[in-house]
Write a structure and sequence with these properties.
The chain has 15 helices and no strands. It is mainly alpha-helical. The relative contact order is 0.04. This is Heme biosynthesis-associated TPR protein.
């Protein structure tokens, strides 16, 4: 009789211990993984003792780990500061890739490339392109993998929007969305040769279609820029003439006009345009002045 009572008490005590351990794990009072509840349940007493010992071991080493973590974070911060250019917050340009790949330790160099891929590879396309030519086989592998994954993602998005557009070719909102996507896709530099030309021609058609619904400066700027990319200079001139009539004093028009003359190497027209900007007191923002200085060079 006494043995039965002792057994029942022991079982009740064991159940209470299991509940307490499980509660402690879920509330993070015990610094152990959830699966460790299993030895507590199936190995009475000793299972709980082992879990408590593991908890105290982790708990008393936590401060030391925290210090190591802080030091590691400081090192990582210094590494990233060495590769990220100190420009405005909105400027995502980075220093040349060579500075990253010249790091002596191969493991650190590869780790940096992996961090770029895990962060946001869309912001580091130029970096990944150059990394494909690196002497380090693993760096080349990571870079190519990143480029392939980005291409797959954009191709998937392209197919989806093409499918939607085929169903609703006159949907104005969809046309705008399609234009925005192609602008983003083409700006990444993932397309080359004939594939790029095909998408640029499609982009130009969509921009013209969008302008039929409503004329706006941004769309004309995108149109003119892509017409320059495809060397359709007669069409560029028509776009510029239209912009001149509607947005004569806008700096984007003047910057595009200067770029047009530079690409065609029309020095006389370029000089006259620069003089006209001064004579008419065309306002140029800091960004406009920077672009102007670039094309003047």
């Amino acid at each position: 009789m006494i043995q039965n009572i002792t057994g029942v008490v022991f079982i009740i005590f064991h159940i209470i211990c299991c509940v307490l351990v499980w509660t402690g794990i879920n509330s993070h009072l015990l610094k152990v993984k959830r699966y460790l509840i299993l030895p507590v349940i199936f190995v009475p007493v000793w299972g709980m003792i082992c879990v408590l010992l593991l908890h105290f071991q982790i708990f008393f080493h936590q401060d030391k780990k925290r210090e190591i973590g802080i030091e590691k974070m400081k090192i990582n911060e210094e590494i990233y500061r060495s590769i990220i250019a100190p420009k405005e917050e909105s400027d995502r340009n980075i220093v040349p890739l060579e500075e990253v790949l010249l790091i002596d330790e191969a493991a650190m160099r590869r780790d940096l490339i992996m961090n770029v891929l895990n962060d946001d590879p869309e912001n580091y396309i130029d970096m990944l392109k150059q990394a494909r030519m690196n002497d380090d086989v693993e760096v080349v592998h990571y870079a190519i993998t990143g480029m392939v994954e980005l291409s797959k993602e954009y191709e998937s998005r392209l197919q989806k929007i093409e499918y939607r557009y085929a169903k609703e070719p006159e949907n104005q909102q969809l046309i705008s969305e399609y234009c925005d996507f192609l602008q983003e896709y083409l700006s990444q530099g993932l397309l080359e040769g004939q594939m790029e030309l095909v998408q640029r021609n499609q982009y130009i058609k969509l921009l013209k279609k969008k302008l039929k619904f409503k004329e706006d400066l941004h769309t004309y700027v995108c149109l003119a820029e892509n017409q320059m990319q495809t060397k359709e200079y007669e069409q560029v001139l028509k776009s510029l003439e239209r912009m001149d009539k509607k947005w004569h004093r806008n700096e984007e028009y003047w910057i595009l006009r200067i770029r047009y003359y530079v690409e065609l190497k029309q020095g006389k027209e370029l000089k006259e345009t620069l003089e006209q900007i001064q004579q008419e007191h065309i306002y140029l923002s800091a960004k406009g002045k920077e672009a102007l200085a670039f094309w003047q060079e």
